[in-house]
Amino acid sequence: MAESLFDKYGGFDTFTLVVSSFYQKVLDSDELEHYFRNVNMDNLMAHQTNFIAKALGGPDAYEGRDLRQAHINLDISLPDFLEVAELLEESLEEAGVEDVDVEAIIQLVGSLQDQIVMQT
Predict the structure, then answer these.
(1) What is the DSSP string of 62-117?
(2) pLDDT attached to residue 99
(3) Residues 6+ apart with CB under 8 A from 62
(4) pLDDT for 120 beyond 70
(5) pLDDT value at residue 59
(6) How many CB atoms lie under 10 A from the CB of residue 67?
(7) 10-116: CATH superfamily
(8) Residue among 118, 73, 90, 71 at smallest CA distance from 29
(9) Is 34 labelled a binding residue?
(10) Which residues does the annotation say bind heme (predicted)?
(11) Which of 77, 90, 84 is nearest to 109 (CA)?
């Protein structure tokens, strides 16, 4: 059985750092920070880390809402979604994730667009 991307890069230790770096970039973005006002960021980062773990072949510890329900009232635009993907890509690269694996992860994120982007 092939090693999962989650295990290949060090599991929760690595992806906790990736998620932390990612959300710092998001909160520093003038275009994105408003989505996260009044959000418990520690709770959100824990959910996101568990979601990534599951998505990348790690343990299934994610207990959050489905993506559509979690994002339906946020009115997320396509440009904002694309900026989020760029910031995640930067965070993955900074963590030492190989380009081919970064590309695979970003493709996975792109496949979720219709569940997250609600603005037409």
Answers:
(1) --S--HHHHHTTS---HHHHHHHHHHHHHHHHHTT--HHHHHHHHHHHHTTHHHH-
(2) 98
(3) 47, 50, 51, 53, 54
(4) no
(5) 93
(6) 13
(7) Globins (1.10.490.10)
(8) 90
(9) no
(10) 47, 71
(11) 84
